[in-house]
């Protein structure tokens, strides 16, 4: 018995290692970036050490001014100033120019540094600047996680709402989940009759219909979404047809709107709703419907009291699938949506590709993962009583 | 007993428009009777039942319930209870909810529904099982619930489609007894489909034997067994020896080996070929010694012995020897004398 278990463990070991190595570890490392804070400590080690010992009252000692001037200059030489400037500018807009100016002027600065730095840039005379530098000393920070929920930290450590013009992410999450729920609802409503019809078709027709559902998978999401772009653009066939029929007086601007995003997402994700529903429905015994009819149930009663509850596991599986895919969707909103229709994935991509701000990308990912997990868990709990039936 | 509840008139059913599954069926079901549709698979018995339930439409002809045509009425308005082979209990409902289903559809008051469920569970001897899910019941228990569900809305007619087909032998016999008791107690008309002739003989008031879409014979179990209407029925119900013979006169036939066989008077013209059917248990085993048969094989079956004999030019003549007397069982190779009473011979025209 024990020997068999050991052998079984050995057999699944490669799979476990693969999952661990290619999935859990990278995801964990990425999520850790949401709290990691090492740019300042690496580039300005001495400054960080002096500031860590500073009581935070008034301005720091002269040694801190001297260290920051020297280390900024060295960071410029070593081409590491960009990381520091990026990190500090994210904490307080404007810090980038202060740090770069100081780094470039570092060689010309003379003691007493407390005076010459303030002469160069007035920010060095403000306690806030030093407090920000101290709080960036690492090794961990809550800055990204707070900012991703539209909060910010005051220099003395308190948590407050971010300035109105920087508030963005709570709306973004609401928008992402709102669009995803809408798309899920539309997909479920559209997929159910399709799955039902396919499940009730006779032999050759059912597989033909199923193939038609699968055909979109033969092309990439990019191609399918681009097709919507072609169809919906101002000079596209949809506008052309509507104008031609006299239903529109001027071409409608659909591209760049929420409608286009929902349309493209529904189109891309619909098969993921149909397939689980279809698989549950084909396994449903038609005798249940005959039994219900023999017991006096009319068509509507048979559907509502027998077919619908029995096919509900498929509806939930399909809905969950569509929702999970929609929440993380990047391509479709990016292609056909406007600035105000972008979802979390688009911002994550932007932080990675354009801003090179791994902290924010990781923080948004962490929230997305946690919220999606919570919603799916909640859905399972809420439907548990209904679907938990054995058999 | 002879009041007609259901009548099939010239009902034909064909799926492809050419080969009939059920051909020109005329069948009356009497009020209160237990009628079994018996036949091999593909004989049309299940199709007949499904047309009565409303799940299949006749290609032509008409079906009437209490004198009113029902073949155009949808199944849910026919008020006929159906028990399916795979039970068809709704898996997402408890036993009590399954039983309540036809009653809540009929908008019965809650108290009445509860009372009827309690009575129905009592009837099928599952009083404590109301809160179970069907998956928590054994096959026999599930079929008892299915039976209770088909009866609970007090239909005039209950159809049972091989309801015991999925159960093992002992459980099947137990449930046969239960169905018989319920039928006797409620007096409800039951139409039962099976391919198991023993089950048909046990349960039925009348048996309709189906073959190739037609009823071969419809009569009491005793009549179809003792007086089969044609060679198919003789062969399908029970065991029988079938021999080809020449008609000598109205009471005598000549066997293949030239010996004569006496029968009750029949109407076949002398000189023509005929077919006879003889039940193995009607063969009288006589004394050992010089005789007209040789014992080829003996199979001991407890309550009787089955003998395979060489007789009348055949080596597969079967006789059953009941174990009631002290007579010794003949050993293979022994010559014995067998007798065939004239009333044990059923004569059919050949072909």
UniProtKB/TrEMBL annotation, chain A:
Topology in membrane: Multi-pass membrane protein
- Its transmembrane ranges are 172-196, 208-232, 252-275, 310-336, 356-382
- Subcellular localization, as worded in the UniProt entry: Cell membrane
Q: Where is the ABC transmembrane type-1 domain?
A: 173-379
Major subcellular location class: membrane
Q: Which PROSITE patterns match?
A: ABC_TM1
Q: Which UniProt keywords apply?
A: Cell membrane, Membrane, Transmembrane, Transmembrane helix, Transport
Q: Which InterPro entries match?
A: MetI-like
Q: Which domain of life is it from?
A: Bacteria
Supply the PANTHER family for this chain. ABC TRANSPORTER PERMEASE PROTEIN, INNER MEMBRANE ABC TRANSPORTER PERMEASE PROTEIN YDCU-RELATED-RELATED
Protein family according to the UniProt entry: Belongs to the binding-protein-dependent transport system permease family. CysTW subfamily.
| Name of the molecule in the record | ABC transporter permease
What is the organism field in this record? Answer: Falsiroseomonas oleicola
UniProtKB/TrEMBL annotation, chain B:
- Which NCBIfam families did the record assign? potA
Specify the enzyme's EC class, one word.
translocase
The segment(s) forming the ABC transporter domain are 6-237
Give the UniProt family note. Answer: Belongs to the ABC transporter superfamily. Spermidine/putrescine importer (TC 3.A.1.11.1) family.
Native species of this protein? Falsiroseomonas oleicola
Show the PROSITE patterns listed in the entry. Answer: ABC_TRANSPORTER_1, ABC_TRANSPORTER_2
For this protein, the record's SMART domains field holds: AAA
Q: Which reaction does it catalyse?
A: ATP + H2O + polyamine-[polyamine-binding protein]Side 1 = ADP + phosphate + polyamineSide 2 + [polyamine-binding protein]Side 1
Question: Would the keyword Isomerase turn up in this protein's UniProt record?
Answer: no
According to its UniProt entry, what is the function of this protein? Answer: Part of the ABC transporter complex PotABCD involved in spermidine/putrescine import. Responsible for energy coupling to the transport system.
- Its protein name is Spermidine/putrescine import ATP-binding protein PotA
């Amino acid at each position: 018995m024990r020997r068999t278990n050991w052998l079984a463990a050995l057999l699944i070991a490669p799979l476990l290692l693969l999952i661990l190595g290619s999935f859990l570890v990278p995801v964990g490392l990425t999520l850790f970036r949401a709290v990691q804070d090492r740019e300042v400590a690496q580039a300005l080690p001495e400054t960080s050490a002096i500031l860590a010992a500073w009581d935070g009252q008034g301005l720091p000692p002269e040694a801190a001014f001297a260290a920051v001037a020297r280390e900024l200059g060295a960071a410029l030489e070593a081409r590491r100033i960009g990381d520091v400037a990026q990190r500090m500018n994210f904490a307080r807009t404007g810090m980038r120019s202060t740090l770069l100016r100081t780094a470039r002027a570092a060689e010309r600065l003379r003691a007493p540094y407390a005076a010459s730095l303030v002469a160069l840039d007035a920010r060095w005379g403000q306690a806030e600047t030093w407090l920000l530098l101290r709080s960036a000393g690492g090794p961990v920070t809550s800055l990204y996680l707070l900012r991703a929920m539209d909060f910010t930290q005051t220099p003395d450590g308190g948590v407050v709402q971010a300035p109105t013009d920087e508030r963005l992410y709570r709306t973004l999450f609401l928008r992402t989940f709102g669009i995803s729920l809408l798309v899920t609802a539309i997909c479920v409503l559209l997929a159910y009759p399709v799955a039902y019809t396919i499940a009730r078709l006779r032999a050759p027709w059912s597989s033909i219909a199923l193939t038609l559902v699968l055909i979109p998978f033969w092309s990439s999401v990019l191609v399918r979404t681009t097709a919507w772009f072609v169809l919906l653009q101002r000079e596209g066939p949809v506008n052309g047809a509507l104008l031609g029929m006299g239903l529109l007086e001027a071409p409608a601007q659909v591209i760049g709107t929420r409608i286009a995003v929902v349309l493209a997402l529904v189109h891309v994700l619909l098969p993921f709703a149909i397939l689980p529903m279809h698989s549950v429905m084909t396994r449903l015994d038609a005798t249940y419907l005959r039994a219900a009819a023999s017991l006096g149930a009319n068509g509507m009663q048979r559907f509502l009291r027998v077919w619908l509850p029995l096919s509900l596991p498929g509806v939930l599986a399909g809905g969950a699938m569509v929702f999970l895919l929609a929440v993380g969707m990047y391509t479709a909103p990016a292609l056909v949506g406007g600035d105000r229709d972008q979802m979390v994935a688009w911002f994550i991509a932007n932080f990675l590709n354009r801003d090179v701000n791994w902290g924010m990308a990781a923080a948004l990912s962490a929230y997305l993962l946690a919220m999606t997990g919570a919603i799916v868990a909640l859905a399972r709990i809420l439907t548990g009583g209904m679907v938990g039936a054995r058999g | 007993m002879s009041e007609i509840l259901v009548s099939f008139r010239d009902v034909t059913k064909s799926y492809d428009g050419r080969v009939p599954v059920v051909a020109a069926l005329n069948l009356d079901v009497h009020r209160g009777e237990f009628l079994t549709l018996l036949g091999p698979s593909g004989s049309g018995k299940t199709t007949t039942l499904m047309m009565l339930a409303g799940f299949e439409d006749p290609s032509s002809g008409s079906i009437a319930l209490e004198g009113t045509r029902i073949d155009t009425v949808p199944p849910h308005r026919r008020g006929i209870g159906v028990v399916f082979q795979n039970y068809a209990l709704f898996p997402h409902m408890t036993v009590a909810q399954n039983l309540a289903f036809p009653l809540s559809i009929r908008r019965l008051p809650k108290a009445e529904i509860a009372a009827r469920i309690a009575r129905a569970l009592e009837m099928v001897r599952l009083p404590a099982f109301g809160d179970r899910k069907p998956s928590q019941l054994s096959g026999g228990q599930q079929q008892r619930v299915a039976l209770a569900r088909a009866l609970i809305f007090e239909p005039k007619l209950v159809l049972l489609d091989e309801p015991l087909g999925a159960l093992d032998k002992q459980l099947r016999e137990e449930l046969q007894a239960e169905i018989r008791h319920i039928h006797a107690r409620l007096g409800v008309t039951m139409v039962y489909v099976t391919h198991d002739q023993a089950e048909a003989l046990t349960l039925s008031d009348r048996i309709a034997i189906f073959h190739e879409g037609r009823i071969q014979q419809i009569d009491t179990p005793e009549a179809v067994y003792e007086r089969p209407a044609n060679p198919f029925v003789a062969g399908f119900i029970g065991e029988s020896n079938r021999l080809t013979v020449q008609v000598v006169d109205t009471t005598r036939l000549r066997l293949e080996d030239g010996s004569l066989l006496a029968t009750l008077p029949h109407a076949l013209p002398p000189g023509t070929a005929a077919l006879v059917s003889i039940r193995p248990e009607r063969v009288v085993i006589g004394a050992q010694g010089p005789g007209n048969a040789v014992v080829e094989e003996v199979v001991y079956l407890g309550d009787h012995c089955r003998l395979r004999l060489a007789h009348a030019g055949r080596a597969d003549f079967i006789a059953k020897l009941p174990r009631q007397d002290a007579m010794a069982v003949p050993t293979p190779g022994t010559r014995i004398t067998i007798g065939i009473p004239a009333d044990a011979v059923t004569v059919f025209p050949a072909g």
